[in-house]
Amino acid sequence: xxxxxxxxVEVVPEAVLNGAQVTAATGIVxxxxxxxxxxxxxxxxxxxxxxxxxxQAERIMGEVGxxxxxxxxxxxx
Length: 77
Hints:
Blueprint: H1 19-33, H2 39-50, H3 54-61
Helix pairs in contact: 1-2, 2-3
């Protein structure tokens, strides 16, 4: 059986975002995806506002701002 690498991850309560913080972080990622703010600004906001490491902020942002654009539905005719 292959060991589960996530089994050794310790979650520190101070590092877990609450519901309001998750909503705010999602708003930052969405703003980057829409092109409203630059990717670097979004990463910086995640780091500073939520005390995240660069690696954590990068993981949350994912591919957003690196060519990824959300699909916009066509308006009905």
